[in-house]
Specification:
- By secondary structure, the protein is an alpha+beta fold.
- Helices cover 51% and strands 13% of the residues.
- It contains eight helices and five strands; from the N terminus they run H-H-H-H-H-H-H-E-H-E-E-E-E.
- It has a five-stranded mixed beta sheet with strand order 1-2-3-4-5, with helices on one face.
- Strand 2 and strand 3 (153-159) form a beta hairpin.
């Protein structure tokens, strides 16, 4: 039997009070932390190793033990994140309707166009390398994560940063072709496509 235990249930079972942040605050702090890298191992320690070294049982014991091991970690992480929050707050003050419209146009028009054209160039080049044809995926195939076919091989085309986005929920079961923009070109990794 498989059972999911939600984060709030885990806190309840461990008798840990809910942090209870106002709406949007936790995701904004998380975003700032991602940019600031405030909770990276070099700042707060390698948590997976530290928790294995810890011999206590309760949260208060863990807090005491951790703060003895890393007395400046919480303050250092907080300061890094606070600087980034200030940077984000300054950036937010510059955002108006005109800037949002410019961003939306860039996303919807420019990035869609160039992204699809990159994909077409990548499919054509892959087909040329394999001496075969290519085609775009139809909507039903796109829904499965397929961008196109090189010969009969279904492929998904992703930027080289795709693997870094660990939080992505999608699971792609097809060949992934990665590309990276470099100067006036794109570098394409066709991976293990048959030659």
């Amino acid at each position: 039997m498989k059972v999911k235990i939600r984060a709030d249930e885990i806190r309840k079972y461990l008798e840990i009070e809910d942090a209870d942040f106002p709406k949007y605050v936790a995701p904004l702090i998380n975003l700032a932390n991602q940019y600031a890298q405030g909770t990276r191992p070099r700042v707060v320690g390698q948590m997976s190793e530290l928790i294995q070294t810890f011999t206590g049982k309760s949260l208060p014991e863990w807090e005491k033990w951790y703060l003895e091991q890393k007395p400046d970690a919480i303050r250092n992480a907080t300061e890094k994140i606070l600087v980034m929050i200030k940077n984000l707050r300054e950036a937010m003050s510059k955002i108006d309707q005109t800037m949002i419209e410019k961003w939306v146009k860039d996303l919807v028009l420019v990035k869609t166009f160039t992204g699809l054209k990159f994909q077409e160039a990548i499919l054509k080049k892959g087909a040329a390398l394999l001496e075969t044809d290519y085609r775009w995926a139809v909507p039903e195939e796109e829904a499965k994560g397929i961008d196109g076919f090189i010969g009969k091989i279904p492929v998904s085309i992703k930027p080289h940063t795709y693997d870094l986005k660990a939080a992505l929920p999608e699971k792609i079961e097809f060949k992934i072709i990665r590309y990276k923009k470099i100067d006036d070109a794109i570098e394409v990794d066709y991976g293990d496509l048959p030659r």
